[in-house]
Specification:
Structural class: mainly alpha
Shape: globular
Distance between the termini: 25 Å
Largest sheet: none
Number of helices: 18
Order of helices and strands: HHHHHHHHHHHHHHHHHH
Strand content: under 5%
Radius of gyration: 23 Å
Number of strands: 0
């Protein structure tokens, strides 16, 4: 289950995240907030205060200084996620494959060198400072960091920095790729895979993930499908479904307000993800080893992360999407989540 860049990938991303509130938070976070996403530097103070005017007068005798002043005064304002004339701008009606590759390169830039990297390092530090730090909590923060970064990247292409913007961007890119050459399609797939592995590596302090994929080779699609078939069967185990239903049976909503419903929905999503990680992937079943051990990825949290990294190679495979999608629907139904209503914005 990787961070996909296709129509199937958007669905899988939400399944991993288990809460659309993460992408909504991306759009709702104030620009001045300490947890807001990547922002670009502002105009230098001396330009804002128009001090360059007096500087130009003082330096009129120097042609080199005048050239510098003129270049500064002619500079356009720096790019922002929300341009000043945003209301006059139109949402893109199409997207070229080249733009999609450029967006992926921008994602890599921020994850490798920007605030995305800093946020992922903070997530990794949580485990270093507290060995009992919940895996699901850190996983959700990792997904949130990815989505926040993606929101800001696509907003500079004219898309809304929210879940609807990501969906439209993904839809248009998918349509564009249908007409693209196999080489371009593979370039984008590999770029998305490598970005996801980079995110996993940084958030869980496993720098060897990317190198291991090169030395050991990629997982075959047949093996990946067999693995995810086993995962889907474990997800639909009666004990797993019963546990989810029991934990989600009591609502924590204090009233019928949309805010209260969202809080209760987020709680149910977290319950589902906790059960997924602990009971499906990491718990020994009937005296045997855990699923991640059985599939050859090692024990515990590290085994789980290595499995996700390996599966990134086949993140858009339709059969894997079918396996996971059908099983996830049963889990969410057991949690009391009405997916049809949720998709219509009523849940």
């Amino acid at each position: 289950m990787a961070l996909y860049q296709s129509s199937k990938s958007a669905t899988s991303l939400i399944r991993r995240c288990f809460s659309s509130t993460l992408t909504q938070r991306c759009a709702q976070t104030p620009a001045s907030s300490s947890v807001s996403s990547i922002r670009f530097p502002t105009t230098p103070t001396f330009i804002k205060n128009n001090n360059y005017t007096s500087c130009a007068q003082h330096s009129s005798s120097s042609s080199s200084h005048s050239t510098i002043i003129r270049s500064f005064s002619a500079m356009p304002p720096p790019p922002t996620a929300t341009p000043p004339n945003a209301n006059a701008m139109y949402t893109p009606t199409s997207l070229s494959p080249e733009a999609g590759l450029g967006a992926q390169d921008a994602m890599k830039l921020f994850i490798e060198h920007g605030l995305g990297k800093q946020k992922l390092q903070l997530i990794a530090a949580e485990k270093a400072n507290d060995n009992n730090s919940p895996l699901v909590s850190r996983w959700q923060k990792m997904i949130a960091t990815y989505l926040e970064t993606q929101c800001h990247v696509i907003s500079l292409l004219g898309y809304q920095p929210n879940e609807q913007g990501i969906a439209l961007y993904t839809q248009q890119l998918t349509e564009s790729l249908r007409l693209a050459s196999p080489d371009v399609q593979d370039q984008l797939r590999v770029a998305g895979r490598d970005t996801y592995r980079m995110v996993l590596s940084a958030a869980f302090n496993l720098p060897s993930l990317i190198e291991e994929s090169k030395t050991k080779g990629e997982l075959s699609v047949v093996d990946a499908r067999n693995m995810m078939h086993k995962v889907s069967l474990r997800m639909q185990d009666p004990e797993v479904l019963e546990k989810v239903a029991k934990l989600c049976s009591v609502s924590v909503a204090m009233n019928d307000s949309p805010e209260a419903k969202q809080i209760d929905l987020a709680r149910k999503h977290t319950v589902v993800q906790n059960v997924m990680v602990e009971d499906v992937y990491l718990t020994d079943k009937e005296g045997s080893v855990s699923l991640v051990q059985e599939l050859g990825f090692g024990e515990g949290e590290e085994g789980y992360i290595r499995m996700q990294s390996a599966l990134a190679e086949h993140q858009g495979d339709p059969l894997i999407t079918q396996y996971v999608g059908a099983a996830m629907m049963k889990l969410l139904t057991s949690a009391g989540i009405d997916m049809e209503a949720l998709q219509k914005g009523e849940a």
